[in-house]
Amino acid sequence: MALAHAILVSLLDRPHSGYDLAKRFDQTVGYFWKASHQQIYLELHKLAESGLISAERVVQDVRPNRIVYQLTALGEDALHSWIEEPTEPPSYKEELLVKLFALGTADPAVLLNEIGKRLHFHEQRLAHYQQVMQAHYPVPEKLSARKRGHYLGLRLGVLFEESVVRWCQEATSMVSPLASAAVKSAKPRSAKPAIRKTGTRRKTL
């Protein structure tokens, strides 16, 4: 999958300006397909040049003029062709898990702190997902086909965040005793004795 496909999907419902599309992207597809606003603007320009989307300049009296992008028939064909292609399972990289492989060597207090920060992050994201779920998808069975696709993406996000929160809680319970034991076994450093400097007296004749 490329960023172009994510943008084409985001234009399925209605036309968007570059700013509106980037904002919508952050609040929807951006949760599982990261892209900066600069990358989105550059990709919009490429898609318009290739004819997959149209670009219409809208003149405004008060605000600056803006360009509105819309999916073309050629873009819809390209999107359908991509949807029919096989989907590969995503690759997964997690730096914290690699660090935990060194738990017997690394300072457990440092890793415990990292787990705590990760727990806080995923608790906040889970709460956000749950708020969106309650506000927009209270009865999934009554959703349209397009909305069901949106719901399923959000539902996977909720389940993922719940599992990570539970993992962080379990990891905390396992690493905390190691951190406490490390603190108790740490020997206090003995202070070095101060060396007193003695001056030499000059002999007078």
Could you characterize the architecture of this molecule?
By secondary structure, the chain is mainly alpha-helical. It has 2 domains: 2-84, Arc Repressor Mutant, subunit A (Orthogonal Bundle), CATH 1.10.10; 95-184, no CATH class. The chain has 7 helices and 3 strands, in the order αβααββαααα. The protein has helices spanning 3-10, 18-27, 37-50, 73-83, 95-100, 108-136, 145-185, and strands spanning 16-17, 53-58, 66-71. The protein has a 3-stranded antiparallel β-sheet. A hairpin with a 7-residue loop joins strand 2 and strand 3 (66-71). The chain is elongated. The mean pLDDT is 88.
Q: What is the structural class?
A: mainly alpha
What distance lies between the first and last C-alpha atoms, to the nearest angstrom?
94 Å
Low-confidence stretches: none
Number of domains: 2
Q: How many strand segments?
A: 3
Shape: elongated
* pLDDT averaged over residues: 88
- Please, what is the oligomeric state? single chain
What level of helicity do the residues show?
55-70%
Element-by-element helix/strand order: HEHHEEHHHH
Percentage of β-strand residues: 5-15%
| Cα radius of gyration in angstroms | 28 Å
How many H/I helical runs? 7
Major sheet description: 3 strands, antiparallel
